[in-house]
Amino acid sequence: MNDHETLVTNVQDIIETQIRPLLKIHGGGITLERVSEKGEVSLRFEGACRGCMLKSVTYALGVRQKLMQHPGVTDVTVEGVRLSDHAIKRVEKFYSGYSFWVGHPLKDQSQS
User: What pLDDT score was predicted for residue 76?
Assistant: First the structure.
């Protein structure tokens, strides 16, 4: 298996085990459209996520944040969600200290 195939497999695993189960709780879902050779991940929301008013927050704080932590992933986009880098940083700052991931508390920044 080459590096790109390994990256695709790892991204699929993160989606299946860490992202999709949380979206499914609310009747939503997500599909992996592609992973480019450069590590750009393209996704599409499904179900209730498609019409949700908070899908931009879910993208910025949940989906994007989780996938960008993986080595080799250089960018994450979701069809129909358009946020500038500035907007993503603003959302991340606004929600700092809150974890999107149940059972995955944020590290206490004061202990760094």
Answer: 96
Dihedral-angle region of residue 52 (phi above 0 means left; psi in -120 to 50 means alpha; beta otherwise): beta
* Dihedral sign from CA coordinates of 61, 12, 15, 53: positive
Domain 3-102, CATH class in plain words: alpha beta
Beta strands across the sheet bearing 28-35: 28-35, 40-47, 75-78
Question: Using one digit for the tens of pLDDT, what is the confidence trace for 75-104?
Answer: 999 999 988 989 888 877 887 776 665 444
pLDDT band, very low/low/confident/very high, at 48 (cuts 50, 70, 90): very high
| Domain limits, the chain | 3-102
State the pTM of this model. 0.81
Interatomic CA distance for residues 76 and 83, integer angstroms: 11
Distance CA 96, CA 5 (A): 33
